[in-house]
C-alpha cells in the first residue's frame, strides 16, 4: 500500500514548512506548492532526509488555470491525496480609506478563493478519511483596521471551510481551520512548530466530535 500524501499549498519556511516536516515524520509523502523555487527545493530536501518522497511545483495559485494544472499534476503523480493544507494569506497594510476594492479582491483571491482551486484540483484523488485543513487567524474575529483585508480573508476562509466540510462530510472527508490566537514567534507557544502541531491535531480529531473551527491559544 502506498504511503499517505499531504499537499501543502503556499509552502515556505514558516508554519507550512513545520507542518510538512511533521507529516513527513509521521510517514507521509509530500507535495509542495509555492512561489520560491529555492525555498521549495530546500524544504523538499529536508523532507527527503526525514524519509519522505517530496515533489514540488512553483505556481501562482491566484491563476486558477495554472494552479489547477500544478496542483492536479502533483496529485496525479502521487495517485492519492489524504490531506490538503491551505496556508496562504496576503498582508497589505492599508485601512478602509486607502484600501481599494481591487486590492481587497486581489487579497481575497489569494487568501480564500485559491482554496477552491486547490480543493477542486485534488478532489478526484481524495477518498473517505481525507482531510482539508487551513491556517486561520484571530484576525477573523479581531481585525486590525490598518490591515483590513487580512481580517476579511481570515473570516472568509473560516466560513468557506465550514461549507467545504458540510459538502464533503457525506463522502467521509472532513475540513477544519485552526484559528491561531496569537502572534507567531521564535519562542513560546506560537512558534511555527507549535502551530503546526495544532494543525496536525485538528486534522486528526475524533470524527464523532469533529469541529470545523479549532481555536489555538497556546
From TrEMBL:
Source taxonomy: Bacteria, Bacillati, Actinomycetota, Actinomycetes, Propionibacteriales
- Top-level taxon of the source organism: Bacteria
Organism field? Nocardioides islandensis
In Pfam terms, one family for this protein is: adh_short
Listed A to Z, the keywords are:
Oxidoreductase
Protein name stated in the entry: SDR family NAD(P)-dependent oxidoreductase
Q: Which GO-annotated molecular functions does the record name? A: oxidoreductase activity
Q: What family does the entry list?
A: Belongs to the short-chain dehydrogenases/reductases (SDR) family.
Amino acid at each position: 500500500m502506498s504511503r499517505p500524501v499531504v499537499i501543502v499549498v503556499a509552502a515556505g519556511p514558516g508554519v507550512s514548512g513545520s507542518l510538512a516536516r511533521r507529516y513527513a515524520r509521521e510517514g507521509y509523502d509530500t507535495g509542495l506548492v509555492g512561489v520560491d523555487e529555492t525555498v521549495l527545493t530546500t524544504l523538499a530536501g529536508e523532507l527527503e532526509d526525514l524519509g519522505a518522497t517530496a515533489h514540488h511545483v512553483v505556481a501562482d495559485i491566484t491563476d486558477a488555470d495554472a494552479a489547477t494544472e500544478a496542483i492536479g499534476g502533483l496529485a496525479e503523480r502521487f495517485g492519492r491525496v489524504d490531506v490538503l493544507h491551505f496556508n496562504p494569506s496576503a498582508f497589505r497594510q492599508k485601512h478602509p480609506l486607502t484600501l481599494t476594492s481591487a486590492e481587497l479582491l486581489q487579497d481575497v483571491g489569494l487568501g480564500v478563493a485559491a482554496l477552491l482551486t486547490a480543493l477542486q484540483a485534488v478532489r478526484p484523488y481524495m477518498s473517505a478519511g481525507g482531510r482539508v485543513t487551513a491556517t486561520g487567524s484571530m484576525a477573523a474575529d479581531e481585525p486590525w483596521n490598518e490591515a483590513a483585508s487580512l481580517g476579511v480573508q481570515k473570516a472568509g476562509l473560516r466560513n468557506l471551510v465550514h461549507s467545504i466540510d458540510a459538502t464533503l462530510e457525506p463522502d467521509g472527508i472532513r475540513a477544519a481551520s485552526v484559528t491561531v490566537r496569537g502572534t507567531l514567534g521564535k519562542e513560546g507557544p506560537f512558534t511555527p512548530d507549535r502551530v503546526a502541531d495544532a494543525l496536525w491535531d485538528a486534522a486528526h480529531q475524533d470524527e464523532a466530535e469533529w469541529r470545523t473551527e479549532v481555536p489555538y491559544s497556546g
